[in-house]
Specification:
By secondary structure, the chain is mainly alpha-helical. The chain has 49 helices and six strands. InterPro entries: Nck-associated_protein-1.
Length: 1069
């Protein structure tokens, strides 16, 4: 493992040791490479000066590199020693008899070969070793003790295969014997899909009477042994011990069969051996191997022509067979006891086919048949593998219960009989086998029920030791002469693993951590799966496979753990993000379709239908319908089908969503490198974000044209979206209520969680900039009778109908969309505009302060008042600004009324107490308490005598008439109440004073003869009455005490007469 990491480090310029890239080191590196391993450090100061200057840093940095090479050398020494010992003992290897012994022997050879090949692939090996030794000698006065042997080893393995074949010449007999024992097994495991189908491989229901019979074999472990492992044994074994290929026809047959199966075999991780090229290059340099070279070329052509289809058909068979197996075992988990072997065989076969496809997809770049190395249905196979793994984990106790009884009640008795019938049984072997019987006989079914942890590793280790004892030439007891003992012990080993090593068995048979080192292929497979509609339901397998990456880690390489962890988590996240994105896209597309259907039911679309129905007879009498005139479909027409085979866009979307929902809802959670992953949370997050964007999109706001959808239409669209998302809750596994709640709540804020504008901001800006701005300029009027703003028609100009955005129903819809928080934001912005007008009014008051003080003191002296009033400056400006304030406050009152109705509908149990609490407030109540209660009431839309929002806005300043003049009354009352509250004045007292002053001023108008001064006098009289009606602090009795009612009656008559004479449509009163 260290060597593989070293290879990766040195092959990447970013991670390569910095000394190898420095220009100042170039001459030293060339000298070391040229003289290696005979480097004269003491007499080469000219060449090694840079090394001398940085010797301490070089030692510190390269120590781990150097020690890795030393480890390889020591490993080689141990391998030599062990192989020689095995040869001296004349050990006999047979995979069907001494499985563990044979497997370990072949694994040792392959591992050793892989290490040497990896060593030869490290291009900078001479530089790393030589530079370290130079720095060591400069620092300590002598070279490293291991350098001489290490340097010699590196030179010997410049041509690794040539050297390895020389080393393994003496071991040919043992290696070829072990490989030949694979022949029957390899041929059987190399059957094609048709042979598998004929044998009904993996089928539990092919023979109903035998369904509960235990699935046994004379070679249990061989049944789920990896094909890739066997190929690696055979290819590398015969590559090193090639002499037997010319002398033994059986070896030759096995070798050729193996060459026809794969173009590449794995050395470690993503490092592969190009089988035919490497073998051909080696054999071409040897005499007498011409026929073998021809065999290699023939096998390569066969592999290129047939292996792709061969494995494709096997994958297709496995999809059907494993699906059937998984369905049967899910329905009857009790069968996992007798048929556990089938589950592990299925996992192993899937793993073999997937790894074959991965390593060939990654490495076969130029081919005439690229379809041989691609599989659009690979997701289904991965999914079945994960399903079978989950099934085994779920029913582990069933497997344990069955095999515990098997071990105690059958295996122990059978083993005891076999031991007693042995013709020869040495004492040591007898003790070991007797311990097996006693261990198995002591098992009790209650151990499973109590959750006791089983541990049979000692028994299996003793069996491994016994295999070694009985496989040497001079052993008194030969295992190959007692095959029954081997069979029952191999069976016992499998059964014991079903008790204590189920998870390890799952890793051994179905680990796909190879994807961690073939990430590009992994990503391509996922992308292909998303393009295949029928495979979408299996796409969850890809994030689940990321959990396998943890098996790539090794305790001897802790520095790799963070890197591998990042790979696993990153790809798991990216896969789930993409799946959630696809699902949310599909959901939102269906929502958009539902919204289109909902829009057809809006009241505005029924006008045409009503008109046609009303004029039906008249139209028939007058003229025939025009030809080619399109007939508008009625809502619901989309549900009528003449032919069910016709697939609509909605059908396709629902089908896609069904597939995606299956994959997103397949597992509640799973773990990847100690992180618990919840797929539904990814979907919830995406749906929430997309729903936010969709709601803003539905508003249809156009900044350039100042167009926006009516609140009622947006509300209908939002309800269509929400209705569909709510119906998804049981299918996609996401918390639909939380998604909707979070999205709608975010829309009540100025910005959503992504920092984007919400409908609260859009509608607030639009009402302020479009509707209220035009109302302030007089192009839009407030109609108290309609309780809405109405647009004045203008010739040659097209404008929106203000009443369509400001009537009662629209205000209710706006309140329902924005909610209390959004309406509060709207109020705050309205109040900001009010306060900006009050700032200007304050300036006018300051300018006219002296005159105003005199008017207040002398309002009862007509002569003096006549001279004081003309001195007031900016009177028109005051009226204009107060009118603007009135327009804004009138709109706010309408919006608050909409909020009150919505709040009463949604929360009647809250509205009652709030209104009741408001009734307890009197003029004598403490002002802080009053404002707190009014603020609560205002948040619910309840009207208040004092507007808390206006009070707060003014506090922060501490620094239907034709011209909307009727809005002035609301401005007078609301602003005065807010100001008097702010400065702790008695509101009623000061408003009475205002009423007296205003009344006196108006009565004085009656004595004026100047027509300019008496213009609109009657309208101003009526405005006084509106002031009284608007205020809860003034009454008509107070008005009549200072202003005769007869004047109001005459004013009503005069204003009405003038209206009918002038026929001004906009003067609504």
């Amino acid at each position: 493992m260290d060597l593989e990491v070293l290879l990766r480090t040195c092959s990447d310029p970013k991670s390569k040791p910095p000394f190898l890239l420095e220009k100042s080191m170039e001459s030293s590196l060339k000298y070391i490479n040229k003289k290696f391993p005979n480097i004269d450090v003491r007499n080469s100061t000219q060449h090694l000066g840079p090394v001398h200057r940085e010797k301490a840093e070089i030692i510190r940095f390269l120590t781990n590199y150097y020690q890795s090479f030393v480890d390889v050398m020591e490993f080689r020494d141990h391998v030599y020693e062990l192989l020689n010992t095995i040869d001296a003992c004349q050990c006999r290897f047979d995979i069907t008899v001494n499985f563990d012994f044979t497997r370990s022997y072949l694994d040792l050879i392959v591992t050793y070969t892989s290490v040497i090949l990896l060593l030869s692939r490290i291009e900078d090996r001479r530089l790393l070793i030589g530079m370290y030794n130079c720095a060591h000698e400069m620092l300590h006065g002598h070279g490293d003790p291991s350098f001489a042997r290490l340097g010699q080893m590196v030179l010997e393995y410049d041509h690794p295969l040539k050297k390895l074949t020389e080393e393994f010449g003496p071991h040919t007999k043992a290696v070829s014997g072990a490989l030949l024992s694979l022949h029957y097994l390899f041929v059987r495991r190399n059957h094609g899909a048709e042979q598998w189908r004929s044998a009904q491989l993996l089928s539990v229901i092919s023979s109903p009477p035998a369904m509960i019979n235990p699935a046994n074999s004379d070679t249990m472990a061989c049944e789920y042994l990896s094909m890739e492992v066997m190929e690696r044994w055979i290819i590398i074994g015969f590559l090193l011990c090639h002499g037997c290929l010319n002398s033994n026809s059986e070896c030759q047959k096995l070798w050729k069969l193996c060459l026809q199966g794969s173009l590449y075999i794995t050395l470690i991780r993503d490092d592969v051996l190009q089988v035919h090229k490497v073998t051909e290059d080696l054999f071409s340099s040897m005499k007498g191997y011409g026929k073998r070279v021809a065999d290699i070329k023939e096998s390569k052509e066969h592999a290129i022509a047939n292996s792709g289809q061969f494995h494709s058909q096997r994958r297709q068979f496995l999809r059907m067979a494993v699906k059937e197996l998984q369905a049967v075992l899910s329905d009857e988990p009790g069968l996992l006891g007798p048929k556990a072997l089938f589950a592990f065989m299925a996992l192993s076969f899937i793993r073999d086919e997937v790894t074959w496809l991965v390593r060939h997809t990654e490495n076969v770049t130029k081919t005439k048949t690229p379809e041989d190395y691609a599989d659009s249905s690979i997701a289904e196979l991965l999914f079945l593998l994960e399903e079978l793994r989950a099934l085994v984990r779920k029913h582990t106790k069933v497997i344990q219960q069955y095999h515990l009884q098997y071990l105690a009640r059958f295996d122990a008795l059978l083993l005891s009989d076999i031991i007693q019938n042995l013709s020869v049984c040495p004492e040591e072997e007898s003790i070991i086998m007797s311990s097996f019987v006693s261990t198995l006989s002591s098992l009790n079914p209650k151990q499973v029920d109590s959750g006791e942890k089983f541990e049979f590793s000692g028994l299996r280790l003793d069996w491994f030791r016994l295999q070694a004892y009985t496989s040497v030439a001079k052993a008194p007891l030969h295992l190959h002469e007692n095959p029954d003992l081997a069979k029952v012990m191999n069976l016992i080993v499998f059964h014991s693993r079903m008790l204590d090593s189920v998870e390890k068995m799952l890793v051994e048979t179905s680990d796909l951590s190879i994807f961690c080192f073939h990430l590009r292929t992994f990503e391509k497979m996922f992308a292909v799966t998303l393009e295949e509609p029928t495979m979408l339901r299996y796409a969850i397998a890809f994030p689940l496979i990321c959990a396998h990456f943890v098996h790539c880690t090794h305790e001897m390489c802790p520095e790799e753990y963070p890197h591998l962890k990042n790979h696993g988590l990153h790809h798991c996240n990216s896969f789930l993000e993409e799946l959630a994105k696809q699902t949310s896209n599909c959901v939102l597309e269906i929502c958009a379709e539902q919204r289109n259907l909902s829009e057809q039911l809006l009241p505005k679309h029924c006008a045409t239908t009503i008109s046609k129905a009303k004029n039906k007879k008249t139209m028939k009498q007058r003229q025939t319908p025009r030809k080619g005139e399109p007939e508008r479909d009625k809502p619901g027409a989309e549900s009528h089908r003449k032919n069910r085979s016709i697939v609509t866009n909605m059908d396709k979307l629902h089908l896609t969503l069904t597939e995606l929902a299956l994959t997103m809802n397949h597992v509640h959670s799973f773990s990847v490198f100690e992180h618990t992953i919840f797929p539904a949370e990814y979907l919830s997050s995406h749906l929430e974000t997309r729903l936010n964007r969709a709601i803003v999109w539905l508003a249809g706001y156009n900044a350039s044209t100042q167009e926006i959808v009516r609140p009622s239409e947006l509300l209908a669209g939002v309800k269509a979206y929400i209705g569909f998302i709510q119906s998804l809750a049981q299918f996609v596994g996401a918390d639909a209520s939380r998604i909707i709640r979070n999205a709608l709540l975010q829309q009540t804020q100025p910005l959503d969680s992504s920092g984007d504008q919400t409908i609260t901001t859009l509608y607030t800006n639009w009402y302020l900039e479009s509707l209220l701005r035009q109302a302030s300029s007089g192009t839009i009027l407030l109609s108290p009778a309609m309780q809405a703003f109405v647009s004045l028609p203008r010739e040659g100009e097209q404008s929106f109908s203000a009443e369509e955005y400001s009537d009662i129903s629209e205000m209710r819809a706006l309140a329902e969309l924005l909610g209390p928080y959004g309406m509060k934001f709207l109020s705050e912005n309205l109040m900001w505009h009010v306060t900006s007008q009050i700032v200007e009014l304050k300036k006018l008051v300051v300018e006219n302060m002296d005159v105003l003080v005199q008017i207040r003191s002398n309002f009862s002296k007509p002569g003096l008042m006549a001279s004081l009033l003309p001195q007031l400056m900016g009177a028109e400006n005051v009226l204009k600004r107060m009118t603007i304030i009135g327009v804004i406050l009138s709109f706010r009152a309408m919006a608050q009324e909409g909020l009150r109705e919505v709040f009463s509908s949604h929360c009647p149990f809250l509205m009652g107490p709030i209104e009741c609490l408001k009734e307890f407030v009197t003029p004598d109540t403490d002002i802080k308490v009053t404002l707190s209660v009014f603020e609560l009431a205002s948040a619910a839309g309840v009207g208040c005598d004092i507007d808390p929002a206006l009070v707060a806005a003014i506090a922060n300043l501490k620094a239907g008439y034709n011209n909307n003049i009727h809005c002035l009354t609301k401005a007078i009352i609301q602003v005065s109440a807010a100001l008097f509250t702010l400065y702790n004045k008695n509101i009623e007292t000061h408003l009475k004073e205002f009423l007296v002053v205003a009344s006196v001023s108006l009565l004085q108008l009656g004595q004026e003869t100047d027509k300019l001064k008496t213009r609109n006098r009657e309208s101003i009289f009526l405005l006084m009455r509106l002031v009284v009606e608007e205020s809860s602090f003034l009454t008509l009795d107070m008005l009549e005490s200072c202003f005769p009612y007869v004047l109001l009656r005459n004013a009503y008559r005069e204003v009405s007469r003038a209206f009918h004479l002038n026929r001004v449509p906009a003067s609504t009163h």
